[in-house]
Amino acid sequence: MQELTHYINGEMVKGTSGRFTDVYNPATGEVQAKVPLASIEELTKAIEDAAEAQVAWAATNPQRRARVMMKFGALINEHMEELAELVSKEHGKTIPDAKGDVQRGLEVVEVCMGAPSMLKGEYMDNGGPGIDLYAMRQALGVVAGITPFNFPAMIPLWKMAPAIACGNAMILKPSERCPSTSLRLAELLTEAGLPKGVLQVINGDKEVVDGILDNETIQAVGFVGSTPIAQYIYGRAATNGKRAQCFGGAKNHMIIMPDADLDKAADALIGAGYGAAGERCMAISVAVPVGQETADKLIEKLVPRVEALKVGPYTAGDDVDYGPVITAASKERINKLITSGVEQGADLVIDGRDFSLQGYENGFFCGPSLFDNVTPDMEIYKEEIFGPVLSTVRTETYEEALDLIMTNNYGNGTAIYTADGDTARDFAHRVNVGMVGINFPIPVPLSYFSFGGWKKSAFGDLNQYGPDAFKFYTKTKTVTARWFSGIKDGAALNFKAMD
Ligand code: NAD
Predict the structure, then answer these.
(1) 295 touches 392 (CB < 8 A)
(2) Terminal CA-to-CA distance of the chain, rounded, Å?
(3) Is residue 490 included in any domain, yes or no?
(4) Is residue 449 part of a domain?
(5) Who's near 150: CB < 8 A, 6+ residues apart?
(6) Please, what is the angle between helix 180-191 and helix 80-91, to 10°?
(7) Closest ligand 1 atom, residue 384 Cα
(8) Which residue range is the domain that position 100 belongs to?
């Protein structure tokens, strides 16, 4: 059995706590490795070493720090196949999807190659008589990133690249279900020239997370995961005086207007609803057709597409649309929620509960499920299912559809399919959701914008990556300076006679 490690001071380091947790192969249901769960002593020592390394790193000029990002980006590209395989092996997503996971993280590294221009600060000449003001952006010190299982490459990269480019040291606590990609990325960063100790990957569970939240050296916490944990971490970090941004779960709706191209909308719903087995915080889990005729036609178009989905292990190559979900418990929860939907009166048009794959009977595979006539009081509507289940909530008008989204607790992503620019514009302007797609199903912003939800999908200030990340990972110091008249008009250097 493979024993995974932490990554401390530039090397893989075995855990000493004696506590481990299993890392599964979700396609077979077998335990493929064990990962150490760090003790508070291991964490504290790693933080102390990071604090020491951070001083010299922050003093390294920003362009040299950016060069490390350039080399890191090149190494990620070089190791794309290997990293994608690591992602798929522990997460279960297909290789093309895993490459997308690495790629969207790499794009954030690419933006960090231009960090110096983001760190220039501000200057006001002659803000008062003889007075100049300037604002510097300085690194925070040691910061922490706590990441979820569903993007084992992308989200750790969203955290580590901007934090490090800004001159901080980072303690990264990846998901204990998919830890290997973070460990490998840390190795690549060292190869790219990052000094030892600036990135420490500490594996662990709640014990180490609480240790991070209570540690006085840690200045900021960037979290991504489920909403209850995001809210908990935000509260505890803020109480302890830390800067915190905590991104949570989602329930993303797509409105389909009667004038939409329904084939395009159906194709988009298949990719956004079932891709990665629905385990994306930007997955569309609720289709909202406007008008009964639109709904009938949409369901008609969805059914053959859902039935054609191919579910299997990533090792089956291009012949698979999506893989298993992450754990047996997750599969059981998804099936229970589907059952509750049936019991509460929704129409289960396609039932994925009994899905079984020959040769992979113990894998955590879920067949695709499609619901029609879901109502907002049902559990399947209220809960984030995080599985390959698409619910359809029928509405009569655009205003009703918009209201459904506006009153939902979550506000991560949303989309509208329409041929009418006026409707699309109205939607983008009024909807209380952080990321909006217009005829675009998964509107994850490109890396030079920034990513963040509203409502219960995010707690704290500022978004992830893009310009916001440079603000989150630095603090502003503003100097107001005045120089009294001196040598230029007062000092006499000639040999003067006594007056
Ligand atoms: P999770 O909340 O279970 O775990 C996230 C991290 O928190 C992990 O590192 C985990 O070890 C830690 N953690 C778990 N329980 C904890 C506890 N009680 N105390 C302290 N730490 C704890 O989330 P997950 O299942 O790994 O990821 C899926 C969730 O993440 C979904 O809800 C998804 O929508 C969300 N997500 C959100 C975004 C976003 O940007 N908004 C992006 C990706 C995923």
Answers:
(1) yes
(2) 94
(3) no
(4) no
(5) 91, 276, 279, 280, 281, 326
(6) 160
(7) 32
(8) 2-248+457-481
What letter represents residue 266's amino acid?
A
> Element (H or E) spanning 109, and its range?
helix 95-112
237 with 261, same domain: the answer is: no
Q: Strand order of the sheet with strand 347-350?
A: 347-350, 369-372, 389-392, 284-289, 252-256, 413-417, 435-438
- What pLDDT is stored for residue 499 in this prediction? 59
Q: Are residues 139 and 99 in the same domain?
A: yes
175 lines ligand 1 (CB under 6 A): yes
Q: Is the pLDDT of residue 492 over 70?
A: no
Does ligand 1 come within 6 angstroms of the Cβ of 250?
yes
Q: Is residue 487 pLDDT above 80, yes or no? A: no
Residue 319's pLDDT band (cuts 50, 70, 90): confident
For residue 205, pLDDT beyond 80: yes
Q: Which CATH number does the domain housing residue 217 bear? A: 3.40.605.10
Q: Looking at the structure, do residues 149 and 10 belong to the same domain, yes or no?
A: yes
What was the pLDDT predicted at 196? 98
Residue 447 lies in a domain: no
On whether both 398 and 294 belong to a single domain, the answer is: yes
Which residues form the catalytic set?
A: 281
Q: Domain check: are 236 and 257 in the same one?
A: no
pLDDT in tens, 116-165: 999 999 999 999 999 999 999 999 999 999 999 999 999 999 999 999 99
Q: What are phi and psi of 283, to 5 degrees?
A: -60, 145
Same domain for 334 and 266 = yes
Domain count of the fold of the chain: 2
Nearest CA to ligand 1 atom 13: 206
Q: Is residue 445 part of a domain?
A: no
477 close to 135: Cβ distance less than 8 angstroms: yes
* Confidence band, pLDDT 50/70/90 cuts, at residue 317: confident
Q: Give the model's pLDDT for residue 490.
A: 62
CB atoms within 10 A of CB 31: 13
252 lines ligand 1 (CB under 6 A): no
266 shares a domain with 173:
no
CB 7 less than 6 A from any atom of ligand 1: no
Q: What is the CATH number of the domain that holds 369?
A: 3.40.309.10
Rounded to an integer, what distance in angstroms lies between the CA atom of residue 347 and that of residue 302?
14
- Position in ligand 1 atom list of the atom nearest CA 464: 40
pLDDT digit string, tens, across residues 400-426: 999 999 999 999 999 999 999 999 999
Confirm whether pTM is higher than 0.90.
yes
Question: Do residues 69 and 125 share a domain?
Answer: yes
If you write DSSP's letter for every residue of 359-392 in order, what string do you get? T-TTS-----EEEES--TTSHHHHS---SSEEEE
CA distance 90 to 34: 12
